[in-house]
Design a protein that fits this description.
single chain; 144 residues; 5-stranded mixed sheet; 1 helix
Length: 144
């Protein structure tokens, strides 16, 4: 139902962990995800813990789905002294090429417990259907 657009995602993730880099709008970090079919819908679940729902952008252009989110630092009070900061900050993004068999006009998005869940219905034209066979009383002969 979808094709991967970033074959080096795992390498990028490892590099970010080693170098402690954060994503920027010009070079966002990858978003981990799961994708599966559930009945008559295709479901995509993206991990975005600590991201405010208003900091998430979801766009569809033709059959390209783009999800961008930004985890911003929390402004500590003057009396707070940071001891450890391991949670990644910055911009996160994921682009997916959706198959023509999905109905991109009716995508639903829910955000709960740090997981963005997109539900994309399977298009009617892609669902299995029975073809009736018409019977005619006239027989035709093919000669060559």
């Amino acid at each position: 139902m979808l094709m991967r657009t970033d074959p080096f995602r795992e390498l990028d993730r490892l590099t970010q962990q080693l170098l402690h880099t954060t994503g920027t709008w010009s070079r966002p970090s990858a978003v981990p995800m799961d994708a599966y079919r559930e009945g008559e819908e295709y479901v995509i679940a993206l991990d975005l813990p600590g991201v405010s729902p208003d900091a998430i952008d979801i766009d569809v252009e033709r059959n390209m789905l783009t999800v961008k989110a930004e985890r911003r630092p929390v402004a500590p009070a003057d009396s707070v002294q940071m001891e450890l900061s391991e949670r990644p900050l910055g911009v996160f993004s994921r682009q997916l090429v959706l198959a023509d068999t999905l109905d991109t006009e009716h995508i639903r998005a829910d955000y709960d417990a740090g997981v963005l869940t997109l539900r994309i219905p399977i298009a009617e034209r892609a669902k299995p259907r029975r073809i009736a066979i018409g019977g005619g009383s006239a027989h035709r002969e093919i000669s060559g």
